[in-house]
Design a protein that fits this description.
Elements (H helix, E strand, L loop, with lengths): L1 H19 L7 H9 L19 E11 L4 H15 L4 E12 L2 E10 L4 H14 L3 E11 H27 L5 H33 L1 E9 L11 H50 L6
Parallel strand pairs: 1-5
Antiparallel strand pairs: 1-4, 2-3, 3-5
Length: about 290
């Protein structure tokens, strides 16, 4: 019984894959259309101008939902847009593309951008997805007050530098015992370590202000139909289509599993009936 169940599940999976294969893969013209639509102004992305928050290092993340076959084209369009800006203003730091399951495709694309163009780049990225029959599903903008951190680190570094100068002056004095000189050298080493750590913190803060991280996350989903996809009519249509696909897949699976045995049974029954009829027509032998 378990073997029959496993075979039934396999047949349904094969039938569903066959249905998915009927969809057309994106061609070069599709990719060109997405790239050409990148400069449109179809949607606005949430964003913060750097002039409104000086000293804040931002991190942008946008989530998109597109038809499965459109994800690779949109991802490629975003990558090309970054490359056109030049490495000084935009460079790609990571990318992945995953086929999780049937019609379930996911991916990410990560950038480092000139802060002055981060907001407009995000808006153009949404425009491209809109042209590809997709939509923005979520957006998150987080910020860190790097300016304040740089100021604190700079103050700590200056204090450490002043402590080093004081210790050097004291060490220059000849009237010091060995124990005093050892303690002063320990203080100087601690101050030098604090100065290095503060300088590293300030450097990290300056780097975060010079480059803004941005991530585009892609997931497969329903295409835009021209009106609110949460409307009851659209939901009902989607449910009907999914139900029809499942019903057809089940029927194909049943035919795949029980069709051959049924054919053998029918052929055997016809042969048996033919033989029985022939035997019935043979006259009995006389004694």
């Amino acid at each position: 019984m378990s073997g029959t169940t496993a075979a039934f599940g396999t047949a349904i999976s094969i039938a569903a894959l066959a249905l998915a294969g009927c969809s057309k893969a994106p061609d070069a013209s599709d990719r060109g259309g997405y790239a050409e639509g990148f400069q449109s102004a179809a949607a606005d992305a949430p964003g913060i101008a750097i002039t409104a928050a000086p000293g804040v290092a931002f991190n942008y993340r946008y989530g998109f939902r597109l038809p499965p076959r459109a994800i690779s084209a949109a991802q490629e369009g975003h990558a090309q847009a970054c490359e056109k800006l030049g490495i000084a203003r935009c460079h790609i730091t990571g990318m992945d593309y995953r086929v999780v399951g049937e019609n379930d495709i996911r991916g990410t694309l990560r950038f480092k951008l000139d802060p002055a163009i981060a907001r407009s780049f995000g808006k153009q990225g949404i425009d491209l997805v809109t042209v590809a029959k997709g939509s923005l599903t979520d957006a998150a903008i987080t910020g860190t007050d790097a300016g304040e951190a740089i100021e604190r680190a700079t103050a700590t570094r200056d204090e450490a530098a002043a402590a080093i100068r004081r210790v050097d002056t004291q060490l220059a004095a000849t009237a010091r015992t060995a124990a005093e000189r050892t303690e002063l050298q320990r203080q100087r080493a601690a101050a030098a370590t604090a100065a290095r750590e503060a300088e590293a913190t300030a450097a990290d803060g300056r780097a975060s202000l010079a480059r803004t991280p941005m991530e585009f996350s892609y997931a497969s989903g329903d295409a835009i139909r021209g009106f609110d996809t949460s409307a009851p009519l659209t939901s009902a249509l989607d449910t009907m289509v999914q139900s029809a696909q499942l019903t057809l897949a089940v029927l194909l699976g049943i035919i795949a599993i029980f069709g051959p045995p049924a054919i053998v049974f029918v052929v055997g029954l016809l042969i048996w009936r033919a033989l029985r009829a022939r035997i019935g027509r043979v006259p009995p032998r006389e004694a």
